[in-house]
């Protein structure tokens, strides 16, 4: 591909990087600002628990309890949870440098996913299992894995009651989708391994008590809707 064409496909990094960083911090501030408080979040969490029991998918408690006698697994899942978000900038940089033709669309999918999350957090605040499900052990806080003890303390700029949808699952699903879509033509079999990442994340958020199964489904759905909307808009604008 000619160098000039690559430059046209890539947004200028000195505009792109500050905008993405500012957007991420603004996303966090808006999430914190729409925090409606504990009563509503706990009530919604109890509704989710009842729904999961009805559907026979209430697996958070047994999964969490199964971890407690295994310190290695506790620390492995704790570090995975805290560090998995770093995959997002890594994938963005990789796309920017090696797949410039796909970067813009995939970055837009990520941005739309985060925008769609905000009304969910406002309309349906939800306390995570570690706060609202009886018997769940918040072992990341107990072992203070990467300063996780502080994650139980309310503080300005942080919304602890925004478990619906699971953005950890949404972000890693986006990573899986981005890597899969970038590699599937040249290495179709290898590209399938990209989906292992969000699957592991889904398991980790359950065993650590951060999310319900319903939150995971909502996170994946969020990415799916974002992909659909982005594809639809691009088709209409290019028609």
Task: Describe the protein's architecture and organization.
This is Membrane-associated phospholipid phosphatase. Keywords: Membrane, Transmembrane, Transmembrane helix. By secondary structure, this protein is mainly alpha-helical. 71% of the residues lie in helices and 0% in strands. The chain contains 13 helices and no strands. The longest helix is centred in the last third of the chain and has 26 residues, at 213-238. The protein starts with a helix and ends with a helix.
Write the layout of secondary structure elements.
Layout: H1 3-9, H2 13-33, H3 38-55, H4 60-67, H5 71-83, H6 87-98, H7 100-123, H8 129-132, H9 139-142, H10 167-183, H11 188-191, H12 196-207, H13 213-238
Helix pairs in contact: 5-12, 6-7, 6-10, 7-10, 7-13, 10-12, 10-13
Brief sketch in words of this structure:
The model is unreliable at 1-6 (pLDDT under 50). The chain has helices at residues 3-9, 13-33, 38-55, 60-67, 71-83, 87-98, 100-123, 129-132, 139-142, 167-183, 188-191, 196-207, 213-238.
Provide the descriptors you would attach to this structure in a database record.
239 residues, 71% helix, globular
Name the beta content range: under 5%
Q: Enumerate the spans where pLDDT stays under 50 for 5 or more consecutive residues.
A: 1-6
Overall mean pLDDT stands at 94
Q: Please tally the β strands and state the result.
A: 0
The tally of domains stands at: 1
| Major β-sheet annotation | none
- Summed up, the helix count is 13
Derived structural class: mainly alpha
Order of helices and strands: HHHHHHHHHHHHH
- What is the global morphology? globular
Indicate the radius of gyration in whole angstroms. 19 Å
Helix content: over 70%
Q: What is the CA-CA span between the terminal residues?
A: 25 Å
